[in-house]
Amino acid sequence: MDQHFLQSSAWEKYEELEGHKTFRLNEKDFSALAILHSTPLGNYLFCPYGPTLKSNYNPNATLETVLHSLSKLAREQNAFFVRIEPTFPLSNPEAKSLHLHKSHDLDPAHTWAIDLTQSREELLKQMRASSVQYWRSSAKKGLKIRQTKDPKAISILTSLLQAVSEKDHFQPQTEAHLKNQLQSGFATLYIAELDHQPLAASLVYDNSTTRFYAHAATSNEHRKINAGIVILIQMILDAKDRGAKIFDFWGITTSEDPKHPWYGFTKFKKSFGGYQINYAGTWDLPLSPIKYQLYRIIRYLNRLKRKITH
Fold first, then answer.
1. Distance between CA atoms of 41 and 291, rounded to whole angstroms?
2. What is the DSSP secondary structure assignment for residue 151, as one 8-state letter?
3. Nearest to 280 by CA among 24, 7, 8, 63
4. What is the pLDDT of residues 209-243, one digit of tens each?
5. Element (H, E) at 292
6. Average pLDDT over residues 258-269
7. Which string of DSSP letters, residue by residue, matches 213-278?
8. Contact 157, 274 (CB under 8 A)
9. Contact 116, 246 (CB under 8 A)
10. What percent of the chain has pLDDT over 70?
């Protein structure tokens, strides 16, 4: 099975910049990047979009071996549970047999992707016609798109994100976190400007095969130019030009409820063509059941408090 970007050495470097202790297990049948996190009750080990299995043969038997290795490491680090996010199917009966408990998904359980091995013409044909027209006419309207790896430029994205978060009531990542991603070398910042005024910005992650659409925000100014659409199409085509095989939109909902907070941007992502990828979601293996149950109660009450506040 292919290793997800969040299991890569590049992401490991970023986590270390964030001050986290990391561990890498590399065995015959699997590999796993595990990150040590802390809570008021103690530590836990987290494998974002991992572990990675090196064979499709009997994945759940291999997962049992992985969990044994991670549990041993977790106990050495005084962690009271292990958290994993398998990128292969995991049914409830299978999870139960492994003593796993379903957690609130930290990383999306579903994503949307585009096959970049198609021709440029085929890619554009699958996109909404009006979106392609915005992209084709953007230069004539004076919109300029540039890309940078300069960490100082991240303030352009964070200021746009802050404006969006105040309107849509969500907490964006801090400027320090996003700056560390640029400093780690895997991220590129795209900026769309009109007369030197930023109208949209987006941060993408790249590895040898895939470009990931990580963070994005668009200004309310000059909405008719649709800078957010233009910058996204450019990022897709640039990824193809550099030889990437996949463009990953990093998260959608499968809900058909228009009131779902992800419903709107899921429709937006799907309007560019592509296909759905399903993961197992986030699962926990408690090593100290009483402490873990207390952790779940506190976490639930904190989420409830945030909902009431908003």
1. 7
2. G
3. 63
4. 999 999 999 998 898 999 999 999 999 999 999 99
5. helix 289-309
6. 93
7. EEEEEE-STTGGG-HHHHHHHHHHHHHHHTT-SEEE---------TTSTTHHHHHHHHTT--EEEE
8. no
9. yes
10. 94
